[in-house]
Amino acid sequence: MKDGVLIAGGGLAAQRCCEALRAHGFEGRIRVIGDEEHPPYDRPPLSKGVLTGDRDPDSLSLRPADWHEDHSVELLLGERAVALDPGIKTITLASGPTLSYDAAVIATGSRPRALPGTEHFPNTHLLRTVEDATRLAATLEGGTRLIIVGAGFIGLEVAATARRRGAEVTVLEAAPAALSRVLLPELGDWFVSLHRSEGVDLMLSAHVARFGEGPGGAEWVQLTDGRRLECDALVIGIGIEPATEWLEGSGLETDGVRADARGRTKAADVYVAGDAARTFNPVSEEHERSEHWEAATRQGAQVARAILDLDPLPTALPSFWTDQFGHRIQLVGDASKGDEVEITGDLEVPEFTAIVRRGGVPVAGMAVDQPRSIPRLRKAIEQSTAQGERSTDEVPAPN
Ligand SMILES: Cc1cc2nc3c(=O)[nH]c(=O)nc-3n(C[C@H](O)[C@H](O)[C@H](O)COP(=O)(O)OP(=O)(O)OC[C@H]3O[C@@H](n4cnc5c(N)ncnc54)[C@H](O)[C@@H]3O)c2cc1C
Fold first, then answer.
1. Which CATH number fits domain 5-111+241-307: 3.40.50.720, 3.80.30.20, 3.50.50.60, 3.30.2310.20?
2. Is pLDDT at 55 greater than 50 in this prediction?
3. Pairing of strands 217-223, 208-214
4. Which of 34, 116, 155, 331 is positioned for an S-S bond with 237, CB 3.0–4.6 A?
């Protein structure tokens, strides 16, 4: 392997891939192309501790400063990959050079969706990078009137931290329930109650008609029912999209790259991990995007094993956590697919677990401030779906 492994994207999945390659004895060249100026860093604190001020933005690196040099990992920071040619095995950088590889890993992650019509307002915020979080944190203080568009996990986390900073927070959600893409309404309703009890004005079925512009940017938002809400800053939290448009012309998908459960794409020696991936799930038998930390970690390691021709890690249930108003909320499995929820514990305290079933079979679980119940929920779901017993080798190759 003269050219070694070339990783496009310098985030979590890239970092975990580097670590696993070295841990398994790979001695070849590893290069990471990252368009940010920072070595790989952790994003979850961006909507939590960095916004509250409890976490120093300089403390987010996934590894100590000398790790990459010590492990002979070349970081090409501030460089953007703009083209992949699997035929001649090269990746081209925006700055000009074309780099050859023996194995390429796509780990370019995702980016927040912009809301058309708000991009030009100087007081509009999207949240993905440490600079985004630092800029938003600077606007949050007692009395700031913050409007958040979208009651997804990022929107709700920002709402919770902004309230802690004393901001007046309104969340506008177009759907009739919060988190409706990922949770059954019963559980989404619990999030709504939690936020309202903490003083967030969370509006469901709220459709934005237009924005009023002043010298500082957006000054008010008008809803389709005529209500007008004043604001000092806007946060757009309407979901993310894979950062894979740069693969146009490569023959790979530009809306999330399809891969088998080991991260192998349809192009020889090209792999994908993390938010950029649409990975085959042998349980649902679909290619799915994950958008979560644990999946990026696992897929980074999985890809390293595939490159080195090692046995794959067994498949794992998707899992996720979110911190809101001091509560640790954990999810395991796919909670969007159930048809009934059984709650054990107290929704008001709150301290409870929820088992989500489909046709009587457990498919997902959620725990609020009950971390020790997660292994039990995971086991119940794995047994019911036989997920733990399926080897990733059994999955069909991507088409
Ligand atoms: C604010 C926030 C809070 C979160 N909180 C949680 C949480 O509580 N729990 C949870 O499970 N998950 C959370 N996540 C999600 C989790 O952080 C992501 O799933 C994870 O970071 C994905 O890792 P990745 O390596 O695929 O992508 P990223 O970490 O996004 O890294 C991709 C990197 O590639 C760079 N890049 C993009 N395009 C190019 C290009 N063409 N060339 C070179 N470089 C490029 C990007 O700038 C970025 O640096 C959160 C995410 C955010 C943004």
1. 3.50.50.60
2. yes
3. antiparallel
4. 155
Position 392 scores a pLDDT of 37
- Quote the percentage of the chain above a pLDDT of 90: 87
**C-alpha span between 293 and 49 (Å, rounded):** 16
Distance between Cα 291 and ligand 1 center (Å): 8
132 lines ligand 1 (CB under 6 A): no
Question: Residue 343 has what DSSP assignment?
Answer: E
pLDDT at 384: 82
pLDDT (tens digit per residue) in 97-128: 999 999 999 999 999 999 999 999 999 999 99
Q: Is the dihedral of CA 96, 97, 103, 109 positive or negative?
A: negative
| pLDDT the model gives residue 398 | 36
Q: Alpha-carbon distance 392 to 312, whole Å?
A: 6
Answer yes or no: is the C-beta of 44 below 6 A from any ligand 1 atom. yes
* Same fold yes or no, 5-111+241-307 and 114-238: yes
* Statement: residue 399 has pLDDT above 90: no
By most ligand atoms within 8 Å of CB, the mutation choice from 127, 275, 289 for ligand 1 is 275
The DSSP line for 366-398 is EEES-GGGHHHHHHHHHHHHTGGG--GGGSPPP
Of 373, 289, 291, 386, which Cα lies nearest the Cα of 329? 373
46: Cβ below 6 Å to ligand 1? yes
| CATH, range 114-238 | 3.50.50.60
**Model confidence band, residue 386 (pLDDT cutoffs 50, 70, 90):** low
81 in contact with ligand 1, CB cutoff 6 A: yes
Q: How remote is the CA of residue 15 from the centroid of ligand 1, in Å? A: 11
CB 257 within 8 A of CB 272: yes
Q: If you measure from the C-alpha of residue 222 to the centroid of ligand 1, how many angstroms do you get, rounded to a whole number?
A: 32
Q: For domain 326-386, give its CATH number from 3.30.390.30, 2.50.20.10, 3.10.20.310, 3.90.850.10.
A: 3.30.390.30
User: How far is it, in rounded angstroms, from Cα 380 to Cα 166?
Assistant: 41
Closest ligand 1 atom, residue 112 Cα? 53
| Cα 12 to ligand 1 centre (Å) | 7
Out of 250, 278, 293, 322, mutate this one to test ligand 1's pocket (max ligand atoms within 8 Å of CB): namely 293
- Where along the chain do its domains lie? 5-111+241-307, 114-238, 326-386
Q: Which of 43, 79, 290, 317 to mutate to test the pocket of ligand 1 (most atoms within 8 A of CB)?
A: 43
